[in-house]
Amino acid sequence: MANPNDPALRSWIDIAPTSDFPIQNLPFGVFETDERGPRVGVAIGEYVLDLYAVAQFGYFEDLELGPKMPKIFRRRSLNQFIALGRPAWRAVRQRISELLRHDNPTLARNEEAMHSCLLRQSDVRMLRPVRSHNYTDFYSSIEHATNVGIMFRDPANALLPNWRHIPIGYHGRASSIVVSGTDIRRPNGQRKAPDAAAPTFGPSQQLDFELEMAFIVGRGTELGDTVPIQNAEDYIFGMVLFNDWSARDIQSWEYVPLGPFLGKSFGSSVSPWVVTLDALEPFRVAGPVQEPEPLLYLRQLDEHNFDVNLEVGIQPEGGLETVVSHSNFGLMYWSMAQQLTHQASNGCNLEVGDLYASGTISGTTPDSLGSMLELAWRGTRPVPLADGSERKFLQDGDTVTMRGYCEKDGLRIGFGEVTGKILPANTL
Amino acid sequence: MANPNDPALRSWIDIAPTSDFPIQNLPFGVFETDERGPRVGVAIGEYVLDLYAVAQFGYFEDLELGPKMPKIFRRRSLNQFIALGRPAWRAVRQRISELLRHDNPTLARNEEAMHSCLLRQSDVRMLRPVRSHNYTDFYSSIEHATNVGIMFRDPANALLPNWRHIPIGYHGRASSIVVSGTDIRRPNGQRKAPDAAAPTFGPSQQLDFELEMAFIVGRGTELGDTVPIQNAEDYIFGMVLFNDWSARDIQSWEYVPLGPFLGKSFGSSVSPWVVTLDALEPFRVAGPVQEPEPLLYLRQLDEHNFDVNLEVGIQPEGGLETVVSHSNFGLMYWSMAQQLTHQASNGCNLEVGDLYASGTISGTTPDSLGSMLELAWRGTRPVPLADGSERKFLQDGDTVTMRGYCEKDGLRIGFGEVTGKILPANTL
Question: What superfamily in CATH does domain A135-423 come from?
Fold first, then answer.
């Protein structure tokens, strides 16, 4: 069998070289149309491959996917498919790769099947790909943590003492994770300016994005179990882009001592296509040197970061988009494997579909920062947009779009985008 | 129809006056036996009423509980039943009250039905009553927050500036909520003594309980919706006892700046019977005076606290239990209505089954504190046990049991208990 990551593979579907979804990617998502209920699909070029239809035509029959086939592909989330386990994910991806190869006539020459299985992405609605019952947001970019420390604490001691020892994280709100394209309503909340006598309640004046990536857990554990660092990636199904919308004024008033709460829980956006860790394999890179060396349970060999180019654009209502940041996921100080092993190190049970977000991914230059807070440096250097306006934080009507892709030796594996538009706050 | 809270009601089942489960209570839970899969039941005296059996005998037929009947009573959680809404909860509780009344022969004289519907509590295994996809832990006892502030921050400014303005809370880990009776394994984790040069990884040396109560959401909202304070209790199905196990050494090293994480997520225990807010109605009390007056969205009239007597016992392996604390839920500074309204105030969507815990419920006297941290005052005044030993924190083999009940005018409505035994940490 051909390696589905082989850069030489081609599909009988015409795919632009700049597409995020060549035959080497094959990310999983959930879509619906007016005629078809929620179904699992795979992105290929400008198309979606309907896996329920593929299964109905019998193309998965010899894969031994279990008694729930083909119903697992007619679900509102990927969870049941993911729960089948890595051998199943790999078998399905391998089969899809075969079916889409330029030299395989099985699907390409079966007009009825092709018509039934392939839909244009522009003709479907993408849904939230995974139902995550548990969502942790880490804080694993050393540049971001340092920037926040400089702004809000002590520039001379910007990183807190625990930061280089622990992949710091907190539990986020799972219910308000929404798929790309969902509008985000500006939250009302309590905030208090440092010089104000008392707090007030009203629309956040410091609405922000956070450029993040997140991984989806593909294998659960029992309470009391742990995950050795060398096995941690076996528990990861794939990755998405993640916008951890943040209301800085609400957050700064509420977060001491128990952490972020309503400053975050009004919404978090995910991209609709989950790129498998298998597809990302060619893009492994070493992370930053960790100093001091982590404790034994977090110590890893080899390369556990992934080289994903990221960008953030802001488009004002009716205007053109300005790309305000370029960053890279490969910069992360703590790897996904370390995050996952740490999460489970106290015996906390993992569940299939758990979402673990990276924390804001900031680079080392002023144009590579992952939030408005940092880009405009707490409002002191407003960010210019193409329409001549500028931003300290987000305005109503702004659409924020994040994109990500890997590129190496002529092969491009992309994540598509996660986008959301700010609606005005509810009137009080 | 008789008011199911009427203190004069009696059942044809013999119920001890000290029972937590008289005919005026009728809490809901989920049980199983070797013969019967998971089913919804109601506690009555020393018995469980099997609602699936009751439904099969046709006793709910005229209640119009919808097309999912009677399957909703053959489920591993109460969620589907709760999702039917308050009119359904009330209709079912009313009907059960009627069936169990001393003067109603319908069930009492139908030997076949009675045999099928009533099981001894000692013959069933109780399961986690609700599947909570979202769990928030509040911090709403002013005595607890003050004690923690005195111990870890500034005795002169023990309460943080936001505390009297916001029902402070944080998202907890939903996956590790377990039912009473589940053993709790001592977690391993990173901790660093203040005078140590570097952290180490190993078993927590400061394992603690937190005496809490929690409420279960019975009605969801859409993202962007809010819950006016005057309607907040309409969204609450009922309450349980809650032990928020805490590893203080892990917590104190990890929690700045993003809050508690692995110091809590290794397990949280709930009592198996959910006492409805309807059953608690006779036990309303006013809460403490709130000063300053909360902002308008949190301002409430009437009485929104509930007078629940609470106690905590510690039983060493093979020894007798010592009750180490007596507290009361009526002391809480922030009410459940205020917590829920605050949670939803930024548009965060609620889901049926959400669990909102109160935070540690401490009283004003040294014997009414809700955690070992406070009872032993950070290890400075060890707590004596009946077997002659003493505790600064919990030891392996200790069983912690929390109990709660309301009592007024001869009527007692109880919660049963939430209990858990500490197992030794996994070897590294």
Answer: Fumarylacetoacetase-like, C-terminal domain (3.90.850.10)
